[in-house]
Design brief:
Elements lengths: L2 H18 L2 E11 L5 E11 L2 E6 L4 E11 L2 E10 L9 E7 L2 E8 L2 E7 L26
Antiparallel strand pairs: 1-2, 1-8, 2-3, 3-4, 4-5, 5-6, 6-7, 7-8
Length: 145
């Protein structure tokens, strides 16, 4: 192998190893500003097992898988694929996560929209389509813009 190929393979292996070390469950309330200027809030549950994971949005009744794409410092990037509730959530977003102590700073971008949250580990893991990070009265389930 040429030295450049070896260097690239080493870099990819190191990035994958750093992603694999991030595992856990976090939940909270996500916020997004829609293109029409309306702000929406909804529950968000993040589960990571290294290079794989999932996002569930219980109050929106949608969610799907996360596939690792890359790492940049302490920030990891995953591609989200909505598996259920496709009529209620946008597909193919880029999810950026960065540990902040025990919490996780989370950001979703796609279709000209950005959503953010600080997710906490202090939650009870629930089934993918049930549960809420806050009582339903607090969460407004606005759908796709």
């Amino acid at each position: 192998m040429r030295p450049l190929h070896i260097l690239v393979l080493c870099f990819l292996a190191a990035a994958s190893a750093r992603a694999e070390s991030l595992s856990g469950y976090w939940c909270g309330i996500g916020e997004q500003n829609n293109t029409d200027g309306v702000k929406s809030c909804w529950s968000a549950n993040l589960t990571l097992h290294g290079t794989a994971g999932r996002m569930d949005y219980p109050s929106l009744e949608c969610g799907g898988t996360l596939t690792f794409e890359r790492v940049d410092g302490s920030t990891r990037f995953y591609r989200e694929r909505i598996e259920y509730g496709r009529d209620r959530c946008l597909d193919d977003g880029l999810v950026k996560v960065e540990p902040q102590g025990a919490s996780m700073r989370w950001e979703w971008t796609g279709s000209g929209i950005t959503a953010t949250a600080v997710l906490s580990p202090n939650c009870v893991e629930s089934a993918p389509k049930t549960g809420s990070a806050e009582p339903p009265a607090v969460v407004s389930a606005l759908r796709q813009p």
